[in-house]
């Protein structure tokens, strides 16, 4: 088995084992890492299922709290359906008219017909069924000669004959009142004299439809009569060819079929459904987009990634959750659609529209995923979403109608327009609306061939489009990035990335493109060499992070060849001015960014290869509070705990412990938006602590806190440092002094110094600060006295009787100074005096100023 295979199978086994318990790292030994990182057994990753479940619960909770939006969602469907109902009602009331029954409509006046009027050479041979009211059967046996001269028998046309005109009329009338077969037309002979050539007949036609199946309910007056030529042509051919008299005397009249009682309605709603249902079914698009963009805008997605979120779990959970929302909307849509009695729902087979809507739900989510990549702000996404949806629906329906309204529009054009998914949806709804409008019986799934002919292409097109949209999204979201990273790693790993630390020696540094631009300080260099051989929990090994620039901006080297190590039980203070590269280092450590060069190992796992393992043992508290306003403190903690595999009693206990740890046990039930700034900071630290990490990254955890909250949080950090490696970035020297055993100061991405706090003060402080306060008259005297006492004294400032000096360490004997000053205090009229060591703040300022001067 090769290395890759063995790693995979071990990973699978450990994932299976971890099914029943939260992911707990097993690394807490005295000697933590026996082997070089790249050959260690991989730690299990956070599980997809746990993350999926945590995300689903979180989304559900947030959705439940959006009461206004939920009500709006439900109401919108109902309002649209009600609106259509009102339109139909108004049209019925004011535009439709009642139809009185007429079982025997009067024929129009008879007229003489000449052959030129009735001879249709291209008339198809009729295969429809016709009714005849007289003894016409004998004519059927005569042959008909077509234009081309081939013989055609009238017998191919089915017919039924009746003994009288009345019985024919009655049968036709009944065929409309009962659900029986409906003929296309009938001939009612008043006179048929074969010998004299006198013929008089009425042609009865069903003006409601050209086909026999189209007039189930009642007759309509606007139908076409395309079948007439067939009928008439057949009869006339027979007459001309078989009546023996040379002078034909034909009189014919048209007569409508009998009319049954009813209403002639204009089914205006059927023509509006395409657009209105489309709007309704697009309505969730902006909501889907906004929820995705919200997490992007507030950096929540990035932080979740830093906390170990697997992108696949994230997108699958959004997909499933949004689809459930869509189904919920569909249920409301169906309930009211059926309740309001829309023909669309009643007449078409359920499967015909359900299938369309089910596929469209997927298409909608795919569109929302893709569009959400375009926006960074919720506001822009919502404006674009709402206006865009209406524009999209109207434009696609107008475009579809314009390009396909002509008779004989080629299929290719219809398919081409449907490349816009909204146009395909519009087309599908329109087909079903037209098939179920008044006078039509809807699409029936029992005639599968017909159903597939009508709707098959729409389903197929939407289905393919959905797959393509998801594919595009996957490419834009991940694949390209993965391919790019893989290619970069391949091409650079040889020279820039050292898998085995033993390969690194000082010469390697010079080989690197990111070699130090100037001689690096001794302490920094010593740390670089130390960390290579160390077993520290965090090992930063020659890390360089370069952000790619663009046309207007050059590349930005945020971190430059940084090496440092942090061991268990150590809280390392990472100091530096704004933009120094602290957050970038933390981000690389937690996997948000890949290192450009160099590497970081956490408990032996490399950020380049074992990020999944790193996320099970490390946690980060970001610089800004990234929490969901509508979740409570407890729910926020539950979310991160679930992501790390905690369930049931273990979850409850862990959340309670953490709430207590950060001093929020009484406020867990409050929503985050009701928290003060300090409480938010504490819950953020809680979110980082909830998974009991081996390595804790705290990025300015106390920024913006009042002194008392700050001290409370310090206690939490101090307590938690005991069995963890903690990296703390801060701008507060007081905080660094209170919490950190070692400090590193970074400026412009380069580590300037590293060491223990006290050591740095001694090293970088010029010595001591001396100050005194005296009466105005004696100031000069005291100044002269102290200058004699401490020859290296340098006046910093004098203000309102207080004089401040700096004095170097050389030649200073503190006990002698104390003695002399106390002895002469009264005589010199000194009210107060003091001597103190240089503060960390001064060290920091000195180092950053030096760095600025040398750069
Ligand atoms: N995604 C990014 N793209 C481009 N440049 C970036 C990006 N993130 C950070 N930078 C740049 O990298 C440099 C280091 O930024 P970083 O946020 O790490 O500094 P910092 O020390 O954390 O500062 P602060 O104390 O203000 O948080 C800055 O110049 C910043 O503008």
From TrEMBL:
GO cellular component: membrane
Annotated Gene3D superfamilies: P-loop containing nucleotide triphosphate hydrolases
UniProt membrane topology term: Multi-pass membrane protein
Segments of this protein annotated with the region Disordered: 1-30, 507-527
Pfam families: ABC2_membrane_3, ABC_tran, R1_ABCA1
InterPro entries on file: AAA+_ATPase (IPR003593), ABC2_TM (IPR013525), ABC_transporter-like_ATP-bd (IPR003439), ABC_transporter-like_CS (IPR017871), ABCA (IPR026082), P-loop_NTPase (IPR027417), R2_ABCA1-4-like (IPR056264)
Signal peptide stretch: none
Main location: membrane
Domain called ABC transporter: residue spans: 538-773
Compositionally biased region (Basic and acidic residues): 510-526
Manganese is among the record's keywords: no
Domain of life: Eukaryota
Molecular function per GO: ABC-type transporter activity; ATP binding; ATP hydrolysis activity; lipid transporter activity
Keyword Kinase included in the entry's annotation: no
Cell location: Membrane
Transmembrane segments: 71-91, 268-294, 314-342, 354-375, 382-400, 412-434, 455-476
Keywords: ATP-binding, Membrane, Nucleotide-binding, Transmembrane, Transmembrane helix, Transport
Protein name: Atp-binding cassette transporter subfamily a abca
